[in-house]
């Protein structure tokens, strides 16, 4: 999902026509997509780190 949002944001910026007055909409859409991807990635990393820490604590207390 994260890579899809980043790819979409890149595509929007590449295909946007800067001479049109509505170019700000494409930039806004690209920025929102990129921020959503970053937020998703941060949540995923935190969740994975918490799971790894819990697994480590569980294996240490089992020994």
TrEMBL record:
Coiled coil: none
CC annotations in GO: cytoplasm; nucleus
Annotated signal sequence range: 1-18
InterPro entries assigned: Perm1
Keywords of this entry: Signal
Any single GO BP term: response to muscle activity
Name of the molecule in the record: Uncharacterized protein
Lineage: Eukaryota, Metazoa, Chordata, Craniata, Vertebrata
